[in-house]
Amino acid sequence: MVKVLLWGTLRSAADGQAEVEVAARTFKELLDELVARYPGLEPQIRRGVSLALDGKIYREAWFTEIGPDSEVVLMPYMTGG
Amino acid sequence: MALDSYQKRTFKQVGTRPNRPDGVDKVTGRAMYGADATAPGMLHAKVLRSPHAHARIVSIDTAAAEALPGVKAVVTAADFGVPEDAFLRDVQDHCMAREKALYDGHAVAAVAATTLAAAKAALKLIKVQYEVLPHVTDADEAMKPGAPVVQAGRAYENVPAGMSENVTHHCEFGHGDLDAGFAKADHIIERHFKTAATHQGYIEPNACLASVTSDGKAELWVCTQGQFFYRTLCAAILGMEASQLRVTASEIGGGFGGKTMVYMEPVALALSRKAGRPVKLVLTRDEVFRATGPTVSSSMDVKIGMTKDGRITAGQAVLRYSGGAFPNTTVDMGAQAAFAAYDLDAVRTFGWNVMTNRPKESAYRAPGAPLSIYGVESVVDELCQHFGLDPLKVRLLNAATEGTKSSYGPTFPAIGLKATLEAALAHPHYSAPLGTNQGRGVSCGFWFNFGGNTCVSLSVNTDGTVGVTEGNPDIGGSRASISLMAAEELGIPYEKIRTIVADTSSLGYNDVTDGSRVTFAVGLATIKAARDAIRKMCSRAAKIWGIDEEAVEWVDGAAVPAGPNAGKFPPMTLAEIAAVSAETGGPISGHYEVNADGAGVSFGVHLCDIEVDPETGASKVLRYTVFQDAGKAVHPSYVEGQMQGGAVQGIGWALNEEYIYGADGKLQNPGFLDYRIPVSSDLPMIDTVILEIPNPGHPYGVRGVGETGIVPPLAATANAVSRAVGVRMTELPMSPPKLLKALEAKG
Questions:
Q1: What's residue B2's pLDDT?
Q2: Which Pfam families does the UniProt record give (chain B) (predicted)?
Q3: What's the pLDDT at B639?
Q4: Has residue A44 been placed in a domain?
Q5: Which of A34, A39, A48, B597 has minimal CB crowding within 10 Å?
Q6: Strand boundaries in chain A, DSSP class E
Q7: What is the predicted pLDDT for the residue at A60?
């Protein structure tokens, strides 16, 4: 199981939890599992999210492997100028 | 060869300052910018724009315009479909109003004619019947119940029920117990801030030449930060297949994020398709201001608690950003970045996006971050003043470092903030004396940076030279930096390499030039493409020598036997291998594609000395120094240029630049005479101190540098002015009338 930290406005879609546990080995599995368990997260995940794995931020990287002790943080999709 | 992450090494070419490869073309006027493209039979286009801030389009009669001699096509929203995808629909609607004109300057029709004069004359013959609607241009006003609704039904699911329909997005970040944190403080300051929308202020107006043929193939030559993204958007809006639209990026006279979005390119393509002839569309400066860019405007409340010895106990920010007449999420970035420089037990940021009757926001260097950090750094500065503490030492005391849980969630890996602060503290600028009416401001800055989709091809020519093909317009010296990295990896002189920017049919997809990504991501792909070519050259040498490929390695631009057991052969240089490539297996090239991650966040610290004339309210920057962690500076002159450019644009944002709307909702200053950007004579030389803390996510330790530089100057300048005049300035820009008003209120 992987612990995923959600930002504040997503928590209402995850039963008020700041951190949820999902079974996932990769980012793709993690996002799919989040949507399956918490459908309220789907609109944001569809609009785009980034994921921080042990402090390193990824924008799109479905097959990035997640260790069971990794720190995983869901973040809005990064944009820049 | 699989050295993806940073490897410490002694550089031979990276870190030097060779002449820029585009220098001669640019100083001789030979460089081809957006408006320089021409084609046989080309038509000239002009756009009719709404004179109203908010109006329903009842009807558009184009008959008279179409009948005018010389006019070959007129288009309105009726010539486009209605995309299902909301993002694409907004992009299209911004290019051409569909049911409502949503801001002063919103395009409602366009004409292509044989001459510019005919096109202009035709615009006057288009009859648009408007039903003028109430408008709102201020974010705070737009949030109020009963405010005119810019667009109905656009709120995301995260907006609580009962709010104004103009509120489209809400976000919240942070951790810890705010109440407990504020309870520990010896003093709490809460301030309200407002910042005006600004424009990216690029010198070259948006321009393109579109040519659609009767068989459905199309070409677009355009001034852009991302030809591939422009292709994606234009093809989708025009209903074309991507392969049939080739987009070529011109040289670019500035973009800063503003040219990451289409504004009139789909319109030019639609006109060309209708007329069956090439169409050139060049915006005037007035149009650039009214219908491209700008940044978000903001209204913010920042509250910070501090102990008397300078420890921040809690921080909170409420940000209300308006990105114009369409939903956007730039406030996400501002809310995440606001407190990123600090190691806090209790921090919370709340963000709201609000629609107003203004043009659709476009990115501008580190979008969203300069504003929120201006608010936070202003309050930190005021707390330092309250306790009589040194503002740099307070920042050092509270600075985020490796292991800090960031205000936006992740735990920081190794970061360079403390080193940057220490460099500023030790710099002579910080201890230089100040005179009367002078103040010194300090601010930290932060930006995320990212990598993104990148594709590079590298070809080894038979004469021993090398061509590098990349897909990002050279907006900040990337051809030089890419050439340097290729030269370093291949071990041949910089002058032997020519890097070109490919069109969309010549290379795989590349993301827009944004996010400070190009030197990082394209550099990474170039290094890997060079390694791919090196592997092939080692293979050719092995065949010539009759030994195993694994027994050959690449040293200083030549293949050499890997060890004494590999055999005794003299080094075979790149030129020697290339010269016989036809005989040894054919052309040699390297290629690499990646969606790069690991760009590494970036921090900067700025020092600003300002003198304020108490009689006129005019501010003069006396001295300015930028300290920034750049990772490895590939071409230090360009890195310094990015740092200086960011600082100058931030100073302009702080002191003078603003979109000024009248009560009628019309933009009152759409020109550089009334929209005052800093020019060389306004400013001293911006001094720079580059800190080279290697980014572990790049083979050479490269970190993006293009955006962080614009983040600290708003607060550094505001803190300097506030200290100079003894009044806390909470509204940007701090133009002379506002400063005089503040001085008069102080008495």
A1: 42
A2: Ald_Xan_dh_C (PF01315), MoCoBD_1 (PF02738), MoCoBD_2 (PF20256)
A3: 97
A4: yes
A5: A39
A6: 2-5, 19-22, 49-53, 56-58, 72-76
A7: 86
Domain count, chain A: 1
Whether residue B409 contacts residue A73, with contact meaning beta carbons closer than 8 Å, is answered with: yes
Residues in A closer than 8 angstroms to B157, CB to CB, are: 13, 40, 43-44
* Domain span holding position A37: 2-76
Q: Roughly how many angstroms between the first and final C-alpha of chain A, as a whole number?
A: 36
Structural domains of chain B sorted by starting position, each given as residue range(s) with its CATH number in brackets? 34-133+205-252+259-291 (3.90.1170.50), 297-449+600-746 (3.30.365.10), 451-596 (3.30.365.10)
The C-alpha atoms of residue A45 and residue B27 are separated, in whole angstroms, by 47
Is B413's CB within 8 Å of A55's CB?
yes
| Distance in Å, alpha carbon of A26 to nearest chain B alpha carbon | 15
Q: What is the Cα–Cα distance from B93 to B194, expressed in whole angstroms?
A: 28
Q: pLDDT tens across B56-114, in order?
A: 999 999 999 999 999 999 999 999 999 999 999 999 999 999 999 999 999 999 999 99
Band of pLDDT at residue B732, cut at 50, 70 and 90: very high
Measured CA to CA, the distance from residue B559 to residue B33 in angstroms comes to 41
Nearest to B324 by CA among B150, B131, B82, B108: B150
Calculate the average pLDDT of chain B: 97
- Does residue B1 carry a pLDDT above 60? no
Chain A residue nearest residue B697, CA to CA: A56
Reading the block at residue B325, the tokens are 């007449």
CATH number at residue A52: 3.10.20.30
Q: How confident is the model at residue B563 (pLDDT cuts 50, 70, 90)?
A: confident
Verify whether the Cβ–Cβ distance B171 to A61 is below 8 Å. no
Task: Indicate whether A81 belongs to any domain.
Answer: no
Chain B CB contacts of A66 below 8 Å: none
Answer whether residue A37 is part of any domain.
yes
- Mean pLDDT lowest among B4-8, B165-169, B282-286, B717-721: B4-8
Positions of chain A with pLDDT lower than 70, given as ranges = none
Yes or no: say if B258 and B645 are a contact pair by the CB < 8 Å rule: no
Instruction: Please report whether residue A11 resides in a domain.
Output: yes
